[in-house]
Each structure stands twice: as C-alpha cells, then as structure tokens.
Amino acid sequence: MKYARLTKEQFEELHQEFINFLATQSITADEWEDIKKNKPEAAEQELDVFSDLVWYGVLSKVEYLEHISPNQIHLFKCKEKQMRLIALKIENKAIDFTTKEGFQWLRDNLLSDSIEFYNAKKDYSDDKHLDIFKMIQSGANITKGELFQYFEKLIGQDK
C-alpha cells in the first residue's frame, strides 16, 4: 500500500464506489463475502488497492494545504512541479493562532514587527502525490486556498 487504508467510516461513505471497484474486477457481492470469509489476506489486499486509488484521486486534485499551529501558519500552494510556501511565525507564546482570539489578534496586528513572514518554493521529490500525502499525515489540511491567496496578495508574490 502506498498511502493509507481508509477508515471504516470512509469505506462506509464510499460504499457504492467500492462496489463499483469490485465490479470492475468481476467480483460479485457473493464472491466478495466468500473472499472476506475464506481469503482474508486477499480481501485486505483489495481494501488496500481501493484505498490507494481513492487517495490518488484526492491527492491529484489538491491545490492548497494549510498547517496551523499555535505560533506558526504554513500555507502551501501545490503547483505542478513545485510547492510554494507562505509562512507566518510569532514568538509571543501568549498568541495562539489555532484559537479564534489568536486569529483575531493576527488580523488586527498583521503588519506588526512581531510577525515574521517567510516565502519559499520547493521542488517535489520523485512522487508529488506522496509528498502531499505526507504533509496531510503530519497535520496539514486540504483547503480552497483563501488564506494563501490573501497573504499572496498582501506580500505581493502572486506568481
């Protein structure tokens, strides 16, 4: 498995897609029940293959990621060959960007000298999708990019 097995809840949400996946392999509902009962390792393999297909589809569409921690915000734009990063950092431990109050403080004090801005680009490794997946596994969230685009305009780096 390249990515990660979907959770039980995710499989339940994708029940119809999983049925279609089995159908593409000419596996009927009765055959699937037999495989689960008598060949559990084969059933596990089918679940893994399906999980990887779902993840690949999701990762192929990711354009923006955000990772917000108490004192840092990392905003990523996932381009074709490389990733752009806009990061904000604050040393003041009393400010927590993950709270409503901390985020409001950021909005009110955006141009304060206590906020450090970083702007960088990074090429992907040989596997763009795996790079993105690892970021999600480490806490990044897929977003529509509103925050990235806001800061991109603010710092004048809309390339």
The strand order across the widest sheet is 4-3-2-1-5
The biggest beta sheet, please? 5 strands, antiparallel
Q: State the end-to-end CA separation.
A: 36 Å
The overall number of domains is 2
Number of beta strands: 5
- If helices are DSSP runs of H or I spanning 4 or more residues, what is the number of helices? 7
Sum up the overall morphology in one term. elongated
Beta percentage is 15-25%
User: What is the element string, with H for helices and E for strands?
Assistant: HHHHEEEHEHEH
Query: Helix fraction?
Result: 40-55%
Calculate the mean pLDDT score and round it.
92
User: What is the rounded Rg?
Assistant: 21 Å
Q: What would you call the structural class?
A: alpha+beta
Low-confidence regions: none
Give a quick set of tags describing it.
single chain, 159 residues, alpha+beta, 2 domains, five-stranded antiparallel β-sheet
Short overview:
The protein is α+β, with helices and mostly antiparallel strands and 159 residues long.
Would you mind describing this structure in some detail?
- This is DUF6495 family protein.
- It comes from Winogradskyella pulchriflava.
- Pfam families: DUF6495 (PF20105).
- InterPro entries: DUF6495 (IPR045470).
- This protein has helices at 8-13, 15-24, 29-38, 40-61, 100-108, 128-137, 146-155, and strands spanning 64-69, 72-78, 82-90, 115-123, 141-143.
- The model has no long low-confidence stretch (mean pLDDT 92).
- The chain has a five-stranded antiparallel sheet with strand order 4-3-2-1-5, with helices on both faces.
- Helix 3 crosses helix 4 and helix 4 crosses helix 6.
- The chain is an alpha+beta fold and 159 residues long.
- The protein has seven helices and five strands; from the N terminus they run ααααβββαβαβα.
